[in-house]
Request: fold
Amino acid sequence: MKIAISLAALAAAIAVQPLHAEEAVAPAAAAAAATPTAADADAFVAEAEKTFADYIVEASQTAWVNATFITDDTDALAASSGAKGTELSVKYALGAAKYTDVPGLSYDTKRKLNILRSGLVLPAPTKPGAAQELNEIATRLQSTYGKGKGTLDGKPINGSDIEAEMGKPHTPDEYKEMWVSWHDNVGAPMRDDYSKLVSIANEGSKELGYKDTGDLWRGGYDMPAADFAALTDRLWNEVKPLYDDLHCYVRTKLNEKYGDAVQSKTGPIRADLLGNMWAQEWGNIYDLVAPAGAGDLGYDIGDLLKAKGFVETTPQMNDTPETPETQKRGYWEKQMFKIGEGFYSSLGFAPLPDTFWERTQFIKPRDREVVCHASAWDIDNKDDLRVKMCTKVNSDDFVTIHHELGHNYYQRAYNQQPVLYMGGANDGFHEAIGDFIALSITPDYLVKIDLMAKDKVPSADKDVGLLLRQAMDKVAFLPFGLLMDKWRWGVFDGSIPAGGYEKGWNDLRLKYQGIVPPVERDESKFDPGAKYHIPGNTPYMRYFLARILQFQFYEAACKQSGWKGPLHRCSFFGNKEVGEKLNAMLAMGASKPWPEALQAFTGSKEMSGKAMIAYFAPLQKWLKAQNKGKQCGW
Reply:
């Protein structure tokens, strides 16, 4: 997860502030209100960039302190800072809309105006009271989700706990109870509020010159909104055969475990049986589907680290002046970050600044509450890079460190760009960079950093298990990542009417994921609201794009490094040519349309799912053999 109080971060703000229409135009543009010129637009953009540059550092510092020292006071400071940022975003988005059709605009001014104009997720119209109402509804929706509870064995259970329980062994009836109670208790109460929110946001989007809010969301991808929608369809069709093969195999295994009465041999999969409340990732049921004799992956990075002497910090550990350096709190977790830095250094990237090691939160402090969810920060849009993490000595966190550092190196690479260009080429790029670096954590890499002995490298017969374990998360996620915004685009443009929210949702879940609810659902329900990003109003297509892009980046890096073996075993560790090309793309930030950034690293302007298919080719061949004679599809 990338954190930087930039325009990209401000776009996520939804607590919009009431603004009078006359406040929507910055002073530099006020004189141009009658007949704006290209010079007026230039002045408007210059003022916006200066205003955001002045705001960003203090806002980032405030957000960091709040995330690493949670108190009522830091909450209040963060809320105040966030409200100021939202007000700025609203002001400059509305102001930018007045200049979009001015003749004679330079490339940079036109691009920056579009970034400003599309920098809001839920724009409120300027009529009195609309912003306040939208803010109240958005806050209420998030609060409903945050306070939501389901049940297990008839006892209340909160969101994080019920999510964890869905990934543990239970009976089908227990899975059903958790699924139904969560969706009924959390989603259904949101329905009326969500309908009102859609209406208000659509009105605000039209004031900015968009057809509806979905049109606004699709407006940040350097192409007409309809072309972007078509692109997502094309990408899905490229990877759908792989998903279909995985779906068929997993359905067979679920049928073998639960029988026809719970899961049929044919048709869709029951949504609550896949180890995840939303059936978005299936890795929690890997043991159920693991191939006989090849399911054991052969190694665990956490075990390899511990064999090398890495010791995880415990709450009971206490530093004294006499404590040896290697026994101090956080020492070994910091060494995991040193390994991660070493990967990027091997590609030719400069070392992280000293302040990174002084200011990063490596472990959970003993004396205060913090947000443990891992995130990468760029405090000053220069070189005050940090990560906030409650690191454990295990495989997942070893991978996460490589991912989060990818955000930091991206942030530093574009720090010479103007403030409005300090971001990923599109919102899928930032996540994809960390993900594709993490794909290079292969046995070959572990041998090169002396974490795995060469004679312990898993043999080729382990590849199917390794690939299946990855596919249960990375491939299974694809249709969910797509349909989240497919549903909202339909809601915003009216093709999914307010009276058909539930039907529209379940139709898409069936069409793309091939899953069905464990019980009948009707229009008194609102199952979309049971997933945080819907009440949280967070666009989701970025995650679909990131899943596609990470494999495209990875394949390009492996080709550049001259790798000759199976794609999934490639590591480009130590290859300076890869690093040089990667940095050229990262340094562009958001200054050019994303196809140009993609071309700078991969040689192609076309986003494609073909690299993902190539990566999982051995698995797909195996799946087809396992599915022979089965009635696949739904």
Observations:
- Residues 4-32 have pLDDT under 50 and may be disordered.
- The longest helix spans residues 225-258.
